[in-house]
Amino acid sequence: MNALVVAPKATDWHRLKRLVLDSVSSPITRRVYNLGLDEFFEWYGREPRAGFTKATVSAWRVALEARGLGSISINVRITAVRKLAVEAADNGLLAPELAAGITRIKGVKMKGVRLGNWLTVRQAQALLNAPDAATNKGLRDRAILAVLLGCGLRRSEVAALAVGHIQMRDGRWCIVDLLGKHGRVRTIPMPTWVKVAIDAWTSAGRRQRRPGIPSRGPRRPSSGHGS
């Protein structure tokens, strides 16, 4: 058996895709794999193919390159299809030798970082200064940008960040025991200017939540009889 037939075996396809996605711990990687596998399945069914073989997956890689996708985007899609081949072989839907050939397909080589992928110092400073620091929302946005720029966290890691993660270690501020991709626990040094941006936001939030002193007008005389 060397083919995943598109229409009659759609149930097998969804079952295999679920097995692939369940083997991934990161929600972000799972989402990208899901997209890549759906794209591959749609491409596979556009025209007759020789089967789910190394040649077919190589043609898929060429099609991805023709779309102008970056090397990382192509490689993560190829990795998802490699995992699909392994699951198909394990479930008796693909000959083991064909799966082995697919898993040997190499990804696209990384050719360095393209110009324009990194912010200059001036661009980073402009981005950090973009939020309105006169508002609590602006201070919050500036704190988020500071953590992204200064600590190199992923968006999902910033979203999961709590105040308790920020602790003093060996005389410097750090983000401690942050759970990241693939369940890795990391401790990340925090530059002083990032801590200053966070403190500005949290201090403003505490002032906003602090109960105010009610204003008192002239005291009205009591209508009751004095003793």
Secondary structure: number of strands? 3
Instruction: Provide the number of structural domains.
Output: 2
User: How far apart are the first and last residues' alpha carbons, in Å?
Assistant: 104 Å
Estimate the strand proportion.
5-15%
Say what the CATH topology of the largest domain is. DNA polymerase, domain 1
Fraction of residues in helices?
40-55%
Mean pLDDT: 80
Strand order of the largest sheet: 1-2-3
Attribute tags:
disordered C terminus; mainly alpha; 227 residues; hpI Integrase, Chain A; DNA polymerase, domain 1; elongated; disordered N terminus; three-stranded antiparallel beta sheet
Topology:
Elements: H1 10-22, H2 27-44, H3 54-66, H4 71-90, H5 96-103, H6 121-129, H7 136-151, H8 155-159, E1 166-169, E2 172-179, E3 185-189, H9 192-209
Antiparallel strand pairs: 1-2, 2-3
